[in-house]
Amino acid sequence: MDPRALLRASFDAAVAAADPLRIVDAYLPPPSRQGRTLVVGAGKAAASMALAVERAYAGAGVALEGLVVTRYAHGLPTEHVKVIEAGHPVPDEAGERAAAEILARVQALGPEDRLIVLVSGGGSSLLSLPAEGVSMADLRATTQELLRCGAPITEMNVVRKHLSRIQGGRLAQASRAPVTTLIVSDVAGDDPSAIASGPTVADPSTYDDALAILRRYEARVPPAVQAYLEAGARGEHAETPKPGDPLFARVDNRMIATAHGSLAAAAEVFRAHGVTPVILGDTVTGEAREVARVYAALVREIRAYNAPFAAPVALISGGECTVTLPKDGAGRARGGRCSEFLLSLAIELEGVADVHAIAADTDGIDGSEDNAGALADPGTLARAEAAGMPARRQLEAHDAWGLFDAIGDLVVTGPTRTNVNDYRAILIL
């Protein structure tokens, strides 16, 4: 198989392994004819998860109703569970209204009812219901600032949980009905309290932790946000429910898809084509261009000494890198962490033969544009130069998208309606 086609096939397999329409049924509780079954949720996979629940319970006599919120253009037609589209990665009023309705419907449940919560990556933004005294404009500004300064998603979510009326376990706290949560993980390490800011999961973090994160990144947040967190640290606002709280005895959180599961599915594609797959990990984090430099050093070692792995080999990894933008806003900043990783890798591997790579986000959107990621090969830099897109200039401008678009090497899938984070594969022939 052509190297580029093989790389794309591996990515497609990774996405398919996390497709809710294929996997949700196996994790649902048996149908209940007692009381109501309310389905709520948030994330990039919310619509496909809701549709999968409807299909699984079809004809079973379940009194099914609900509401989920997903990213714009990620909706699907459903019959019983309403799908609302809202803003991501920066929250908006549509998400706020949906979150408020979800909370109200959960609060109306009784002990004889059942609550099914569908959680996936992106839910932190989509399920945004600011704490009293914090406006949506404040929450938007805080999210934008944390994105700009390159804070990892887990630390962003510590802050967001403490500015929310619904995240950090508070949704479970609001329910008198037993709760079953199905989780598609998009965070390194699959910590359920970090995924979509853990609406039904005990939260070990504190207001003090949130303030420490703002200080660490020198984040400039609105005065109302700073004041609210400081008041929380003084004990003036209730903390999120913690591990050991008896309320979680009625909550069953089930992890149904992870990055590692998707990497394993991709590995089988390479193995079937005579290429040894090596999974380097599903928790890779750090600045995208710096991670690329480390990977490039490993590739050079393999190419020069056939060690520590012998070609043909595919180096596969997942996780979520970051891209830190300049405070002054300089640069065109088009693209995302996957395309920036790939461009940096191509620069570092200039002159190295027979190395091909893909980096793409399993949700189908890499950063600011409409592509999932991109492909690179030994001719990438020359084609970019010929197209008037010198690689180093584009990297410094954080405009990897412009380069890969100019040479026709973007990977475009449209919304995949799932999300188990980034996928990277480097094929050494």
TrEMBL record:
Keywords: Kinase, Transferase
Gene3D superfamilies attached to this UniProt entry: Glycerate kinase, MOFRL-like N-terminal domain, MOFRL domain
Domain MOFRL-associated, chain residue ranges per copy: 7-230
InterPro entries linked to this entry: GK-like_C_sf, GK_N_sf, MOFRL, MOFRL_assoc_dom, MOFRL_protein
Record's keyword annotation contains Kinase: yes
Record-linked Pfam families: DUF4147 (PF13660), MOFRL (PF05161)
Molecular-function annotations in GO: glycerate kinase activity
Residue ranges of domain MOFRL in the record: 313-422
Keyword Cell inner membrane: no
An example Gene Ontology CC term for this record: cytoplasm
Superkingdom to which the source organism belongs: Bacteria
Alphabetized PANTHER family for the sequence: GLYCERATE KINASE
Protein name: Glycerate kinase
Organism: Cupriavidus cauae
